[in-house]
Design goal:
Elements (H helix, E strand, L loop, with lengths): L2 H6 L9 H7 L5 H14 L5 H14 L5 H11 L6 H10 L6 H14 L1 H6 L2 H9 L4 H14 L3 H12 L4 H11 L6 H12 L9 H10 L1 H6 L4
Helix pairs in contact: 2-3, 3-5, 4-5, 5-7, 6-7, 7-9, 7-10, 9-10, 9-11, 10-12, 11-12, 12-14, 13-14
Length: 228
């Protein structure tokens, strides 16, 4: 195991040696660069704005790397740059059509966090819906979560989430149900779906998903399910 991998295990405690980790961002070895980028998922939470600005060019460069893992970790790092839209948004938009599914997802999440309006204009909702249909539930549930957090393009997002609630994957269905709670304007359509999911007899959907959604929609919806 390389030194950078060991430092990654330290999380925020690796801050004193961050300059050494930064130098590893330009290492010739893909594995070293990948591990170095992974360190910043924690480190960026404790870095100053000046330090973050200094590292931004390296993250933007990594976002164009040939290695999909490096691109993925770079997108995760850029999630921390919410105040740097003009520099970061165009680079993330390019990665929305990355050949790697995980990179597309992480770029979508980062873009939505940095500038939700830019994310919507870039077509993130249709992209998230596409990812939502993936058989990999560890990726698909995050797309369901993202659609709920954005709460945009109701006419597209709500039918897609309802379809996932009716799906056969419990993790994705539970998160899709929870995300429907962020579309209260569609309560007439959503509440019956959530009530049915809440009393699912097949045991596919976890109760917390529809229950949380009904509470988020409002007291009247929660009362129909007997939830306080």
């Amino acid at each position: 195991m390389c030194v950078i991998s060991l430092l990654r295990q330290l999380g925020k405690d690796a801050k004193p040696v961050e300059p050494a980790i930064a130098r590893a961002l330009s290492d010739d070895d893909n594995g070293v660069r990948l591990s170095a980028l992974g360190c910043y998922e924690e480190l960026l939470n404790v870095m100053s704005e000046k330090e973050k600005v200094e590292r931004l060019p390296a993250f933007l460069l990594a976002l164009r790397d040939q290695d999909e893992g490096i691109r993925n970790n770079a997108a995760v790092a850029l999630w921390h740059y919410s105040g740097y839209g003009p520099q970061v948004v165009p680079a993330l938009v390019q990665r929305l059509h990355d050949p790697d599914l995980d990179v597309r997802l992480q770029a979508s999440k980062a873009l939505a966090h940095i500038d939700v309006q830019a994310a919507t204009q870039a077509g993130i909702v249709p992209i998230a819906i596409q990812i939502l249909k993936e058989p990999n539930d560890q990726v698909a549930y995050q797309a369901a979560q993202l659609l709920g957090e954005m709460g945009k393009e109701t006419e597209l997002a709500v039918p897609a989430l309802i379809a996932s609630v009716h799906g056969t994957n419990g993790l994705v269905a539970s998160w899709a149900a929870r995300s429907l709670g962020n579309f209260p304007s569609q309560a007439d359509i959503i509440v019956p779906v959530l009530l049915k999911a809440l009393h699912d007899t097949n045991g596919i959907i976890s109760r917390w998903g529809p229950a949380d959604a009904l509470k988020a929609i409002g007291p009247a919806a929660a009362a129909k399910a007997g939830i306080k």
